Amino acid sequence: MFENLSERLERSFKMLKGEGKISEINISEALKDIRRALLDADVSYKVAKQFCDEVKQKAIGREVLTSVKPQQMIVKIVHDELAALMGSDASDINLKGSPAVVLVAGLNGSGKTTFSGKLALHLKSRKGMKVLLAACDTFRPAAIDQLKVLGEQIAVPVYSEDGVKDPIAIAGNAVRKAKAEGYPVVIVDTAGRLAVDKELMDEISALHDTLKPAETLFVVDAMTGQDAVATAKAFNDRLDFDGVVLTKMDGDTRGGAALSIKAVTGKPIKFISSGEKLEALDIFHPSRIADRILGMGDVVSLVEKAQQQYDEKEARELKKKLAKDQFTLNDFYNQIQQVRKMGDIKDLAAMIPGVGKAIKDVDIDNDKAFKGIEAIIQSMTPAEREHPEIINGSRRKRIADGSGTNLQEVNKLLKQFEGTRKAMKSVMGGNLKNMMRGGMGGFRR
Fold this sequence. Notes:
Layout lengths: L2 H11 L10 H17 L4 H15 L10 H16 L14 E7 L5 H16 L3 E6 L4 H14 L3 E2 L7 H15 L3 E6 L7 H14 L3 E7 L4 H14 L3 E5 L8 H10 L3 E5 L7 E3 L2 H8 L5 H11 L2 H12 L5 H13 L3 H6 L4 H4 L7 H13 L3 H5 L6 H11 L3 H21 L3 H6 L9
Parallel strand pairs: 1-4, 1-5, 2-3, 2-4, 5-6, 6-7
Antiparallel strand pairs: 7-8
Helix pairs in contact: 1-2, 2-3, 3-4, 4-11, 5-6, 7-8, 9-10, 14-17, 17-19, 19-20
């Protein structure tokens, strides 16, 4: 995400390296390159020009402290303007109503149905809310089945009506069911449609008018760039939605839609989705995204992801085990599973300042990274997992054969386990606990 733009902006900033002060001449040259970088990232010309004009206006005449170099000052100004362009602050979803109805709209193939499932899981796991999904895409035969499968995976019920083609009737009945059975939220998944399709646009407008949703979200495929922005504007002119969801962010290294859509529609981006896992849904924080674009990492989001997987009861038990030197390979295996749930390793590493650039050319496959470790541990007997000290040479050979690995890999894993055990023992008393509770010491914002 934003990889190409990050590289181009870094090159633009280097134009001011060595300059003693910001002048109209040197800032104009740098901004010309920044504007080209934005256009290459699929940002509209109008938005790119306005952005550069704002940066120039704030840079010229700005008193630069003796301790701050012009290059650093421009990075700060560009960061703040990028955050402002994308909306400055995160916009929370509105869930007022009894029940609160969330209407999900968008084009075919934009990821509406998957997002509906992700949002249901988000509200259930992070807000503790009871959610009902309503299958109102009556045009695509597989959509209802897809939503049902997603509902089963996250243990959220799906309301549907076999043979009924009227989405307004289905949605209305779903809301009545939610009210009768105490569901505070109903997420209504609708059919994909084009803004030029008058019949379908009339239908979504009628659905919106009938349901009077607390929140209407427009789902956009980020990889379509400026087409996504133009489509969002056309929908907003007709539907007046409340916010945007950008999907498939992991497949777009340019990021033009994220940078343009707020300026063009006037509506905030509320969520971004990257990856197929149902946990892969994040609240959109403009300032944090600006951090990522400028290679500053995103430690706050990294800590939040860790907190989502953090179980305080498990942590207390783990602390007791570590204190008694009873941390086992079963515990090690469970920790690996928690890390996997946090998301793609490369994406997580890129949230650490300075690491993203260092690993951009490194190919990291999540499955390959953990598959060998998991196979080795699964090839051990219960006694070996609980008491690693009994794993002698013959046992190591048997484990290697059983896991399809070799003796060196088994030895390496056992060495890693021992190192992890010692490291966790040293931090579990304070540093890790504070990090999980949001402290992060010097990283706190």
